[in-house]
Write a structure and sequence with these properties.
Blueprint: H1 3-17, E1 24-25, E2 28-29, H2 35-53, E3 58-64, E4 73-81, E5 84-91, E6 99-105, E7 117-120, H3 122-125, H4 129-137, E8 149-150
Length: 151
């Protein structure tokens, strides 16, 4: 995808996250073609293109719909080289936080090793794709800094 397409996707994802994705509408959560499904579809495509733009040698995108009353999450896990990778998650925090989790990882099944870092979801509002890439590229040379917040 082009950078312009990724910027449009960022704004669309921000718009979707600005509404309640966990509401119950009709017989299914978020309706049969509701915002939650659109969030997962658009975010997964965004994450696949992001993995390519980051130059990851290996990556996977996982969608977890979870259940009613929550948005679920879309996760990108990928490796630049052996022992050097990135974990990035898009979700609507039910506690009102406006941040996305990202961290360094050491292998493709690493769900816990790197220090949590937080990316302000405002980057998506202004479609700062370059800022997102810069923040994630920092993980190529991880530091011991814990719970860093990028605005």
């Amino acid at each position: 995808m082009s950078i312009q397409s990724q910027k449009k996707n960022m704004k669309a994802i921000h718009g979707l996250l600005s509404q309640d994705l966990g509401y119950i509408h009709g017989e299914r959560e978020s309706g049969p073609n509701g915002a939650k499904k659109e969030f997962h579809t658009k975010s997964a495509a965004f994450m696949r293109a992001l993995g390519n733009d980051l130059g990851l040698q290996e990556f996977k995108v996982h969608k977890n719909y979870v259940g009613i009353a929550v948005s679920g999450e879309i996760t990108l896990m990928g490796m630049w080289s052996e022992g050097n990778g990135v974990y990035f998650e898009l979700t609507q925090n039910i506690f009102g936080s406006k941040d996305f989790l990202y961290r360094h990882m050491t292998h493709m099944k690493d769900h816990s090793s790197g220090a949590n870092r937080w990316l302000d979801y405002g980057l998506f509002a202004i479609a700062d794709y370059e800022g997102l890439l810069d923040a994630l590229f920092e993980l190529r040379n991880p530091s011991d800094e814990v719970n860093r917040h990028v605005a």
